[in-house]
Amino acid sequence: MMKKQLLTLMTTLALSSGVHANCDLSGYEAQGELSLLSNSYAVLKYFSDKMAECESESLKINNKLVSGSAVQEQARIILSSRRGNSPYDLIQVSAESFHEFQAKEQIQPITDLIEKFWDEYELSDIPNEIWDLATIDGEIFAVPLQMNMQQFFYREDILNKYDLSVPKTYADVIANAEVLQQQGIKYPISQAMGKGWDLATEFTNIYLSLGGEYFDLEGKPLFNSDKGVKAAETLKSLLSYMSPNALSMSSDLAMVNFQQDKAVMGNIWATRAAEMDDAEVSKVVGKVQYTGAPTATSKVSIPSTSIFWDGYVMPKRVGENRELIFKVLMEMLKKESMAGASHLAFLTRKSASDVEGEQYRYLNAMRDMVESGAKAFPNQPYYSLAHNEIGSKLPDALRGKKDIKLVLNDAARAYYKEAKAQGFLE
């Protein structure tokens, strides 16, 4: 929780009147407590802080920020155990968890509130095709905040030093890594391949690049195909060039490896790019460059990434403060707030994403990947079940303890059993 701080006379006066200088809740009885459950990386912390600006003497803001995939796991537990009730008024969701929660009727439609505040907050600044991502059967269930993709981070100075080209395929990545190891750089690759969500996401990226489909029309698994085996083999080939803890490496740790001059290349979330140039925590300011994710092979053109989005939802039951909660959300995401975070992520407002400058150089890679046919993250409500099984079972195969094909078959059987048990499939 962001504690109330009286930094200036203006802030003091704002709090004493019940309205923060940067958060206009006039016309509302802003009393009690509101809370948000969110991931903790830079852009989401920024908007959590914006929500905290709505705190007053009568309204407490009590946000909880957690790292990595833990936020979705906590949300899943909370919403499942409480049948839509939640101690949080707003929850940050990913493309994956959004479809799961909506299918289970654990979040509520907010179309009426969006229509009510459409003009006041200039919500047409968010393109229709982005609103469509959060729309199911004509109802909007989330306010999309940002688009995110994994793209290829690389140390331009080091590649130039050894006369290496920027990789276009994973075979190129391995070839570069081999040269760098021979030059004394023991672990040149750093990317999030930790057991669970991160590893399953990397598998998904490569599998989509190969043209793989996760399910048939009836929801039966297809990811244990030859393309699935090839995706896993590609991941396994990276391990010789990564630190011994590669299969426990999170996005946070992969980012820190770059910041601390311990990595040369890796597929990293675009939202981590701004932190490469933060002089307070990074030793490599201005040295990291960005390009599209490598393709799985030279025979395909789809980059090994997936179009991901994050947004905010309201649990199915949040008490009597529904409109106040949404008003606070709008204050968080208004034009001037998003403009202040345009260097941190590819935000959904056109006014915040159409930017130029050195600090936004990573955005070009995102645009290029979309133009190259990058696939959207799978949106079937039961996808997360397959994702979980792959993430938990695949490490043994990558360590060489089990056969890759057998492990994928086990994951497919476990997914199908659980999907039927949860009522997704007949």
TrEMBL record:
Record's keyword terms, sorted: Signal, Transport
Compartment(s) where it occurs, according to its Swiss-Prot or TrEMBL record: Periplasm
Alphabetical list of InterPro entries matching this protein: Bact_solute-bd_prot1, SBP
Matches recorded under SUPFAM superfamilies: Periplasmic binding protein-like II
Family annotation (Pfam families): SBP_bac_1
Primary location class: periplasm
Record flagged with keyword Repressor: no
Signal peptide: 1-21
The keyword Cell division appears for this protein: no
Family the entry assigns: Belongs to the bacterial solute-binding protein 1 family.
Name of the protein in question: Extracellular solute-binding protein
